[in-house]
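task queued by scheduler; priority normal; single chain, no ligands, no partner chains; default sampling; output format set to structure tokens
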Amino acid sequence: MLDLTGKNALVTGIANNRSIAWGIAQQLHKAGANLGVTFLPDDKGRFEKKVQEVVEPLKPSIFVPCDVQNEAQVEATFQAVADSWGKLDILIHCLAFADKSGLTGDFSAVSREAFTQSLEISTFSLANMAKYAKPLMTDGGSIVTLTYLGGVKVIPNYNLMGVAKAGLEMSVRYLASELGPNNIRVNAISAGPIRTLASSAVGGILDMIHHVEEIAPLRRTVTQLEVGNAAAFLCSDLASGITGQILYVDAGYEVMGM
């Protein structure tokens, strides 16, 4: 029943084969979507090569650099979508960053520079990309982003990223309200802790995973592909009545009080 055949999906945030974005890309491809992929450019082209090797089996028809702090690259990304596909159906936003100084110590000690950078990359980028996606989603569409429990509750060593995720979740609601009349749905998946390149920056990530395995109703954490399944559902007609929501894919951990 879950069929994305003929849908054009732009996936951001794949860093390697452990990325949650990679799990999402695989499940969108499995459901029949035509994929476009962005990568974070660097001077030596290392990220481009790594991401290209990972996504090669999925044969993306668009593969472009996109540093969301570079407005020209963001605009060029969506121009590539317009030139290659003419329209966009799905946007997957898996972008977040906080300097290590923003993930340790006192929250009040976070620098202005670290705060601004984290909010620009992790929060503002969703609304900014939605701005460019909106005119391309001529047949309606689905935008899905990734968040975490640390956006609503205090999580050790999450600090600045918690504030960024809180802003991201509120952005989902405002964007859902704005884009709903265009039949564009906006949702977020709040995934449980998974070992990824991004999560490795969070101190005690392995302890967090083991804690979830002990406390969550399913007595385990989740996989990238399970998050990918949820994303594919949210992007399909099966979720046509769902927008502005935060869907927890965390083996049930969020419901537990102790």
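post-processing summary
- Helices lie at 20-30, 46-55, 71-84, 112-133, 159-179, 205-215, 224-235.
- Residues 8-250 form a domain with the Rossmann fold fold (CATH 3.40.50.720).
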